[in-house]
Amino acid sequence: MNTITETDFNFPGQKSVYRGKVREVYNINDNLLVMVATDRLSAFDVVMPKGIPYKGQILNQIATKFMRLTEDIVPNWLIDTPDPNVAVGQLCEPFKVEMVIRGYLSGHSAREYAAGKRVLCGVELAEGLKENDKFPAPIITPTTKADNGEHDMDISREAILTQGIVSEEDYLVLEKYTRALYQRGTEIAASRGLILVDTKYEFGKTKDGQIVLIDEIHTPDSSRYFYAEGYQERQNKGEEQKQLSKEFVRRWLIENGFQGKEGQQIPEMTDEYIQSVSERYIELYENIIGEKFSKADISDINTRIEKNVVAFLGK
Q1: Cβ atoms within 10 Å of 76's Cβ, excluding its own
Q2: Is residue 10 classed as helix, strand or coil in its secondary structure?
Q3: Distances 108 to 82, 114, 136 between C-alpha atoms, Å
Q4: CA dist., res. 142 & res. 121, Å (int)
Q5: What's the number of CA atoms in the CB half-sphere (13 Å) around residue 53?
Q6: Residue 150, C-beta contacts closer than 8 angstroms, at least 6 positions apart
Q7: pLDDT tens figures, 212-245
Q8: Taking residues 184-208, what's their average pLDDT?
Q9: How far apart are CA 151 and CA 121, in angstroms?
Q10: Beta strands in the chain (DSSP E)
Q11: pLDDT in tens, 124-145
């Protein structure tokens, strides 16, 4: 199975490269960023040993489509997409927080609630909620932006400001943009028969001081979706929700004894399981975007990316 799990490009004008859990970001002349979405699969802040065919292409294409669909309400870093796995944007200084927004008690928030917590990132949660219940209004539950290999940690707005991680002036903008993006994402999801349950956004600051959206937006790696049809009926019956997100990978790992904790071994992912994950990501794409997924040529992904990026930079 041809996948791209690591890159070692040397583009014209390249100054440095940053390797995240899934994306590798090349600095070109301290002016542009070339972001390559690999096929790496990350769960519980741990990168799995095998790549997922087409995953990078899927994430990149969903993210860039949603950047275009939201640029009228929130400015973003994106300039062009010269390759199915690549986005090129303006150089930004990332904020050291991820802005997580939740409309429902799901995933991490549900696990924390089940453990007895009633305050999440400084936000009070009501008693008597069931998993996947809708909150009266969306809540923002930020996390720290950890360096590669470390865990992101929940943090409150107060702690962010007290520790000087983000200035109050900038943080108010991050909150405003987060709510606007989630509202737009909710509307787009509804038009596809989906519920945008929760998601996270990352922001950076350009050289001229403008705050812009960076990284990914509304992808199955950064977001959780439910099918809208039958949602309330399933809630009333206490049944699991039908969902479109990476949660199915997390559930499989939990069932096989792995949650990223010390001493735990990553369970073996067979070729059959890898193929099933790839097919699930394609299903996610087609539901979220509302169009058929077109597979790129993956016979030699690295050469294809290098050729396309070099041609773009030459322009």
Answers
A1: 25
A2: coil
A3: 35, 10, 18
A4: 7
A5: 18
A6: 45
A7: 999 899 998 899 999 999 999 999 999 999 887 7
A8: 96
A9: 16
A10: 14-19, 23-28, 32-37, 42-43, 46-47, 78-83, 86-90, 92-94, 97-104, 119-120, 123-124, 134-140, 143-144, 194-206, 211-214, 223-227, 243-245
A11: 999 999 999 999 999 999 999 8
CB burial of residue 69 (10 Å; 0-12, 13-18, 19+) = middle
Residue 249 structure tokens: 């990978």
Buried b (16+ CB within 10 A) or exposed e, 275-289: eebbebbbebbebbb
Residue with tokens 């799995």: 48
Angle at 127 between CA 126 and CA 130, to 5 degrees: 95
Q: Angle 247-255/271-289 helices, nearest 10 degrees?
A: 150
Q: Which two tokens stand for residue 306?
A: 């290098």
The mean pLDDT value for 92-117 works out to 96
Q: Is the dihedral of CA 71, 76, 77, 82 positive or negative?
A: negative
Are 116 and 163 a contacting pair, CB within 8 Å? no
- Check residue 21 and give its pLDDT: 86
Question: Looking at the whole model, is its pTM more than 0.85?
Answer: yes
- Structure-block tokens of residue 33: 């960023």
The letter for the amino acid at 130 is K
Distances 101 to 1, 104, 219 between C-alpha atoms, Å: 35, 9, 14
Looking at residue 221, its pLDDT comes to 84
Q: Among 216, 214, 207, 203, which Cα is nearest to 170's?
A: 203
Measured distance CA(188)–CA(24) in Å, rounded: 28
Residue type, 3: T
